[in-house]
TrEMBL record:
GO terms for molecular function: exonuclease activity. The keyword Nuclease applies. It comes from Bacteriovorax antarcticus. CDD domains: DEDDh. This is 3'-5' exonuclease. Gene3D superfamilies: Ribonuclease H-like superfamily/Ribonuclease H. Keywords: Exonuclease, Hydrolase, Nuclease. The keyword Hydrolase applies.
């Protein structure tokens, strides 16, 4: 994998580091009794893959059938392989003092150390990085972080899952992808590699008040999917929030607000479907000034080709359905909300059909609470509630579901969900395009 990195202080920082990405295949997860049957190692130096090694290891025990099936490594494959004691020096020499990387360091590093202890050798003292945890921090709401899926969404090569060298290579390519992101996001401390939270999320970016407007607009113009702009003042007080498709009219208005509002922090957040941005904005709506509430509704109607006179400013209109299903920003993920209590805390992010049972349970549980009058009512301002109602009546890039008197089952959702998925493919190109 070759990557073009901009030559910056962040580049210099990461360019100076050496990494050893490794993966173990074992007879099981018990550190006391199980043995290594394969190890794959990849060396990264100066932000390039420079070397690799792999060893089949004779475990001196029967490889359990489920491990043989998982890894395709049979007892016969390791009959003539070396014992771990015979190759340990070569493995440790390859690792050297590099930063160790695995897609699950909480397994690979302790297991490898347990082998060293059994050999009466000192444990590893190298620093270690987990690309699995990196993924969790950098892509919030990701439901699956396994290497197969990460390779798929980042277009990485990963041909043989659960083979040590192939898993190590996929982890190495994922690490290089993340290192390029750290460089673009101007990493300044090596420690951020170990805990990349609240600064390196791929779906959002924060600008301080001294950031030039031109730089902010330049960032926004690169976006091809809906996003949310939020301005916050001292102590995090919300001063302005607006979802956008990135049209010229929207950009002109947002730029005016950025210039005129004395904010402390400006946050850009990719939201996937525009309606998701509206939901997030609605939680801030009551915190902005009354004149700005009216102005925001007027502009939302203008930008979405809707009749402002249809938006009642005082009386709450009834939502046209009970549930709404939307594409999620992340590929192959979806999100469902109860429209009668529209709040992010009540969302369910799911994959289909993987989580179809969870989806059915969610709908039945929320439907029962609605029927019993126990569903917490949302406290949306009437203006934003009524705008959402009108928006739902005019747009079609979502699926609405009504609760039933009887409990629904998986077959009841199959046709509507699959039709929605076929007619609304995820077009957000995330995480290829990130903030």
């Amino acid at each position: 994998m070759t990557t073009n990195f901009p030559k910056t202080p962040s580049y210099d920082l990461l360019h100076s580091l050496t990494f050893c990405v490794f993966d173990l295949e074992t007879t099981g997860g018990n550190h006391q009794h199980d043995k290594i049957i394969e190890i794959g190692l990849i060396k990264i130096k100066e932000l390039k893959i420079v070397d690799q090694k792999s060893f089949l290891i004779k475990p001196d025990m029967h490889i359990p059938e489920f491990i043989q099936k998982l890894t395709s490594i049979k007892d016969a494959d390791v009959t003539d392989a070396p014992l771990i004691e015979e190759v340990m020096d070569e493995i440790l020499e390859f690792m050297g003092d590099a930063i160790l990387v695995a897609h699950n360091t909480s397994f690979d590093v302790p297991f490898f150390n347990s082998v060293l202890r059994r050999m009466d050798r000192p444990e590893l003292t190298n620093k270690s990085i987990c690309t699995y945890l990196m993924t969790k921090y950098m892509i919030p709401n990701l439901l699956s972080s396994n290497l197969n899926y990460m390779s798929k969404i980042f277009d990485l090569q990963h041909q043989k899952a659960h083979r040590a060298l192939d898993d190590a290579m996929a982890s190495a390519e994922l690490l290089l992808k993340y290192l390029s992101i750290f460089i673009h996001k101007k990493i300044s401390k090596v420690n951020s590699l170990y805990y990349p939270k609240n600064k390196f999320e791929l779906d959002r970016i924060n600008f301080k008040k001294d950031m030039p407007l031109d730089a902010i607009i330049e960032q926004i113009t690169t976006l091809t999917s809906p996003f949310l702009v939020t301005l916050k003042g001292l102590e995090g007080v919300v001063l302005f929030s607006m979802p956008s498709h990135g049209t010229a009219e929207e950009m002109k208005y947002i730029a005016e607000k950025i210039r005129s509002i004395p904010y402390e922090i400006l946050t850009l957040k990719l939201v996937g479907p525009y309606f998701q941005g509206l939901i997030e904005m609605s939680s801030y709506f009551s915190k902005i000034s009354a004149p700005l509430e009216i102005e925001t509704i007027k502009k939302l109607c203008e930008f979405n080709g809707m009749d402002e006179t249809l938006i009642d400013h005082h009386n709450m209109d009834e939502m046209p359905s009970d549930f709404i299903v939307l594409n999620h920003l992340i590929p192959e993920q979806y999100v469902i909300f109860p429209l009668k209590s529209l709040h992010q805390k009540l969302e369910l992010v799911f994959r289909y059909p993987t989580h179809q049972n969870k989806l059915v349970q969610y709908i039945n549980s929320k439907s029962a609470r609605m029927g019993q009058g126990k569903m917490k009512k949302d406290h949306l301002n009437p203006m934003i509630n009524n705008f959402l109602v009108q928006y739902l009546k005019t747009k079609r890039d979502f699926l609405m579901i009504d609760r039933q008197a009887a409990k629904i089952a998986n077959p009841d959702l199959k046709d509507p969900i699959e039709t929605f998925m076929a007619e609304n493919p995820n077009a957000y190109d995330f995480p290829h395009l990130y903030l």
